[in-house]
From TrEMBL:
Pfam families: Asp23. This is Asp23/Gls24 family envelope stress response protein. The lineage of its organism: Bacteria, Bacillati, Bacillota, Bacilli, Lactobacillales. It comes from the Bacteria. It comes from Abiotrophia defectiva ATCC 49176. PANTHER family: ASP23_GLS24 FAMILY ENVELOPE STRESS RESPONSE PROTEIN, HYPOTHETICAL CYTOSOLIC PROTEIN-RELATED. InterPro entries: Asp23. Belongs to the asp23 family.
Length: 118
């Protein structure tokens, strides 16, 4: 999936990997997030915390007309307030994508796939 942005000088295309790296970095910098996990967590029945090189497995980008939707799949730490973590992730992802990549995100959906007990 590529996102195409029209500028006065031409068209810019951003690939899934570029967007996933920016989104993944914004997500994992939040307190309470253990890491990102695969979007196929339940099908694979395996908890694998994703590293920076494969954030694209835990991020789904979709574009419907002018709306860009971002879905992130995370694992949170036990004892943290999940609703606050999700709100912080939504704000961080929206800000990072808009500032670094130059397009507006309509929705950021956070899917908590599990809780890790330390």
């Amino acid at each position: 999936m590529t996102i195409k942005i029209q500028t006065p000088n031409g068209q810019v295309s951003l690939t899934q990997d570029v967007i996933s790296t920016v989104v993944g970095t914004a997500v994992t910098d939040n307190y309470g997030v253990v890491g990102m996990v695969s979007k196929n967590f339940f099908r694979d029945n395996l908890i694998e915390i994703l590293g920076q090189e494969n954030y694209s497995k835990g991020v789904v980008i979709t574009q419907h007309g002018d709306d860009v939707l971002v879905d992130v799949y995370i694992l949170v730490s036990y004892g943290t307030k999940i609703s606050v973590i999700c709100q912080n992730i939504q704000q961080a992802v929206k800000y990072s994508v808009e500032q670094l990549l130059g397009f507006e995100v309509s929705y950021v959906n956070v899917h908590v796939q599990g809780v890790k007990i330390d």
